[in-house]
């Protein structure tokens, strides 16, 4: 879109609407350019010299007499399409037990129309900053698709609670060229130490573009009974005492 003839007073703010409606799961890029000049068409007396700031020199439009005729602000925009929210995946395990489970997740609308996928060893678990700086894929016919994934938690408290109890590894990829659906198969390990119910989000990003989020619910049920304590009464209205030891798993 193009906006022209907008008049701004000194110190006034301008809001520029940006609408993003992706048609496919691929990387979109655009640039917002803002050009400002005086309302009366006169130039600024300020002259840009070789000693001026490099960014300023690049974004200033200089008239023939060396004065400033206009200023440009350039804002790059990177659009990442995000799939609709997926259904929750429930992972249930009894406390003090260890569960190893394969979870299949479907990524719909993956670009480009590749026929081959890399081995599972080519993908890695990354943090949020790495996830947001995905390598650019400019060749739409690339035969290689990489997927970056990470577990995100609703709070630091939940992260602290789950990080040592949950492990995830991408072990297999399956690619359907006709439907453009990629199936990612994860091996999930859950070893809860006590009854709990916590939630996390598995965020998956394809280097060709597209973001998918899968809610995960981790449920740890009551553990098995450690032992049965039998107390034999010595008589009515008399106390009976039995002793047993409890061992702490931590310091």
List strands and helices in order, with pairings:
Elements (H helix, E strand, L loop, with lengths): L27 E9 L7 E4 L6 H6 E3 L4 E13 L9 E6 L4 E10 L15 E2 L2 H5 L14 E7 L2 H7 L3 E11 L4 E10 L5 E11 L4 E11 L30
Parallel strand pairs: 5-12, 7-8
Antiparallel strand pairs: 1-4, 2-4, 3-4, 6-10, 8-11, 9-10, 11-12
Task: List key phrases describing it.
Immunoglobulin-like; 7% helix; 4-stranded antiparallel beta sheet; 5-stranded mixed beta sheet; single chain; mainly beta; 3 helices; elongated; 251 residues
Characterization of this structure:
- Residues 82-221 form the CFAP47-like immunoglobulin-like domain.
- The chain folds into two domains: 1-80, no CATH class; 89-111 and 145-221, Immunoglobulin-like.
- The chain has three helices and twelve strands, in the order ββαβββββαβαββββ.
- A hairpin with a 4-residue loop joins β3 (60-62) and β4 (67-79).
- 7% of the residues lie in helices and 39% in strands.
- Mean pLDDT is 81; it is low at 113-143.
- The radius of gyration is 30 Å and the shape is elongated.
């Amino acid at each position: 879109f193009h906006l022209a003839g907008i008049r701004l007073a000194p110190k006034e703010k301008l809001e520029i609407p940006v609408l993003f409606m992706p048609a496919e799961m691929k990387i979109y890029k655009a640039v917002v350019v803002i050009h400002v000049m005086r309302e009366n068409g006169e130039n600024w007396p300020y002259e840009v010299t070789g000693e001026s700031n490099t960014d300023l020199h690049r974004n200033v439009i200089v008239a023939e007499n060396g004065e400033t005729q206009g200023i440009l602000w350039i804002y790059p925009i990177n659009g990442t399409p995000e799939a609709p929210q997926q259904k929750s995946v429930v992972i249930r395990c009894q406390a003090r037990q260890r569960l190893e489970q394969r979870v299949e997740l479907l990524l719909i609308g993956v670009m480009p129309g590749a026929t081959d996928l890399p081995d599972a060893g080519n993908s890695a678990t990354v943090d949020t900053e790495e996830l947001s700086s995905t390598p650019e894929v400019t060749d739409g016919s690339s035969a290689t698709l990489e997927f970056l994934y990470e577990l995100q938690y609703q709070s630091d408290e939940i992260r602290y609670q789950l990080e040592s109890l949950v492990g995830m590894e991408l072990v297999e990829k399956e690619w359907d060229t006709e439907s453009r659906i990629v199936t990612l198969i994860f091996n999930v390990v859950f070893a809860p130490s006590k009854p709990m119910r916590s939630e996390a989000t598995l965020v998956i990003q394809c280097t060709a573009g597209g973001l998918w989020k899968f809610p995960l619910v981790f449920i740890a049920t009551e553990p098995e009974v450690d032992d049965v304590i039998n107390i034999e009464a010595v008589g009515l209205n008399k106390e009976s005492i039995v002793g047993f030891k409890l061992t702490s798993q931590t310091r």
